[in-house]
Amino acid sequence: MRTALALLILLAVAPASLAGDVAELEILGFSDDGSVFAFEEYGAFDGSGFPYSNRYYIDVDSDKFLPATPIRVRLEDENAMIEEARRQSGERGEKIVGQSVLAANRGFTAGSNAVTELSADPHRMLVNPRPIFYPVDKPLEFRLEEIPLNNTERCENHGEVNGFRLLRIDASKGGQTQVLHEDKSIPQSRGCPYGYGIGAVQTFYHDGGQSAYAVLISVRTYGFEGPDFRWIAVPGRW
């Protein structure tokens, strides 16, 4: 009886004790000319419960962070509110690209898969860039491949560790493949990741002819209480 009771207690508390930190994704938008893409991830760290908000501002053409970014806010107080962390990161972000500019040029979410989605393919997304029917644009197709990088320093005791390769497939050219990103090593800021998924494709089109996209990728890492999810983006032109 005691063994059975202990097992029931263990099963009851296990889900709470294995709750990882899944960052919320907020697509902020593009600059007026589509040369900058910005997004935010926010939540509370597993273990400590400290609220955080990270804002990323990426040059679309070079795939590099703008100077003084990313913006990272962490409130080391478990009683602090996530909204306060977001407010602080938003204030700092105003100096990079104004929120009103990003909101006016948010673009279009052409495809989206939450990390809880089980039926979709997390490694492939095919979209029409704009909600125009019949379509006047070529489809955008992206495929993601995981790359074993188990020799990553600092991650030796974590088990499987992976980087990723992101491909763009051009069906109009016989399936021609373009490598958009390929990890040779894993940056320290990414931690020790072991899984990736395409979470969204955001597109931008301006009447002047400027176009841009950003592929949002969820990153699954080893967390304190379970898997943690963070976000990265790979931008480009279409």
Account of the protein in words:
This protein is mainly β and 238 residues long. The protein has one domain. It contains three helices and 13 strands; from the N terminus they run αβββββααββββββββ. It has helices at residues 2-17, 82-93, 99-104, and strands spanning 24-30, 36-44, 51-59, 64-65, 71-74, 108-112, 124-127, 140-148, 162-170, 176-182, 193-205, 211-222, 227-236. Strands 1, 2, 3, 4 and 5 form a five-stranded antiparallel beta sheet that branches. The chain has a four-stranded antiparallel beta sheet with strand order 6-11-12-13, with no helix packed on it. It has a four-stranded antiparallel beta sheet with strand order 7-8-9-10, with no helix packed on it. The termini are far apart. The model is unreliable at 1-17 (pLDDT under 50). It comes from Mesorhizobium alhagi CCNWXJ12-2. Keywords: Signal. Residues 1-19 form the signal peptide.
Helix content: 10-25%
What kind of sheet is the major sheet? 5 strands, antiparallel
Count of alpha and pi helical runs = 3
User: What is the radius of gyration computed over CA atoms, rounded to a whole number of angstroms?
Assistant: 20 Å
Order of helices and strands: HEEEEEHHEEEEEEEE
Counting copies of identical and different chains, the oligomeric state is single chain
Q: Cα distance, first to last residue?
A: 65 Å
Question: Would you count the extended β strands for me?
Answer: 13
Mean pLDDT: 91
Compute the number of structural domains.
1
Shape: globular
Signal peptide: 1-19
Pfam family, one: DUF2259
Organism: Mesorhizobium alhagi CCNWXJ12-2
Keywords: Signal
